[in-house]
Amino acid sequence: MSHMTINRRAGLGAAAVALALPAAFAAAPSAAADTTPEVASTSVSPAVIPAGGQALQTVRLTAPAPAGGLGVEVISVGFADGNYQYSTDGGHVRVPEGETSVTFPIRLEAYEDETVVPLVARRHGVSARTDVTVRPLDWREQTVTNVDLDVPGDAKAVVAGTKVTGSVELAAPAGAGGTSVDLRVAHVSGLPGSPTPKIPRYAVVPAGSTRGTFTMEYPAVPVSGIGITDVAADLGHSPMRVAPLLVPKQYTVGVVRELRAGARNNIGAVGLGNRWHPFGAVIELTSHTPGVTVPAKVEIPADEAGENFDIRVDESVPAGTKVKISAKWVLSTAGTVATEAVVAG
């Protein structure tokens, strides 16, 4: 009897352990799920900003971020607002380890009309939304008055593989938090296939100032020919533009605006690349096409890397005519380079 009782008790104990184990394992995932942070909410302050203004966005979690922090994607829904993505470092923010929220500055584009931009913070299918309203500025009170590049000469020649400083000017001092001026690359002055420099989405003019700066880079790769490309700056109004001449590293000549017959402003350009020319350069130009004329020479100072020149196409020259222009660098081993183009219809 005694032996059987001991065995029964042992059996009951084993059964109790067997029942307890599944319950313990079932509780573990539940506890982990309860502490896994999710996006709880997001908000913006102020919820209404002037064009070019700055706001602060906050993303909150349901629990403290784990070791190493927690990444959250932030997007502007329904808008390809590049300024917002640029200001949020590619559309991602990180909640620091042990924190339940993160607050970060944001910028939006300067829309022509009052615009409500929905902002969403999301992670693993869980999201939260808030709205920010961008109000346009009265151009009579605040607008962009100028954009320029710190490059000598009218052509603003920039050699591939270099960076230059640009600046924007406002009509009035920037407000609190500074005013961001939208920057865009625009193929207006030159050909559609002109080289494309790298610029930021916007330049910030500090609070109380009328001038802000930015960096423009003309990368060496991919290799591009010579061309004119506009950098446009605006606050939702008509943009101001500067049209630098972007030149490759080697000595070259090219037609940088579509050729048309008659009283048209056709433009060609010479780029000296990164060849040393401490005493300046004299370039003799020759048109090999009847009815097409170019200046006899172009003089380029020592501190400039290129220059534009006019091309005149007589009305008698029919569309489709192939034009050839050569450029001889006088007293240089660079010799003569040439380019060809076609008169447009």
In short:
The protein is mostly beta strands. It has helices at 2-35, 82-87, and strands spanning 39-45, 48-50, 54-61, 70-76, 92-95, 101-107, 115-123, 126-135, 144-149, 158-159, 162-170, 179-186, 202-205, 211-218, 227-228, 230-234, 240-242, 245-247, 252-255, 262-271, 281-287, 292-293, 297-300, 306-313, 322-329, 336-342.
Total domain count? 4
Considering DSSP H and I runs of 4 or more, what fraction of the residues is helical? Answer: 10-25%
CATH fold naming of the largest domain? Immunoglobulin-like
Q: What strand line-up does the widest sheet have?
A: 2-8-7-4-5
Structural class estimated from helices and strands: mainly beta
Q: Tally the beta strands.
A: 26
The CATH class of the largest domain is identified as Mainly Beta
Please write the string of helix (H) and strand (E) elements.
Answer: HEEEEHEEEEEEEEEEEEEEEEEEEEEE
CATH superfamily of the largest domain: Immunoglobulins
Query: Spans with pLDDT under 50 lasting ≥5 residues?
Result: 1-34
Which architecture of the largest domain does the CATH hierarchy give at level 2?
A: Sandwich
Tell me the strand percentage band: 35-45%
Report the mean per-residue pLDDT as an integer: 91
| Inertia-based shape | elongated
Largest β-sheet summary: 5 strands, mixed
End-to-end distance: 115 Å
Signal peptide: 1-26
Keywords: Signal
InterPro entries: TAT_signal
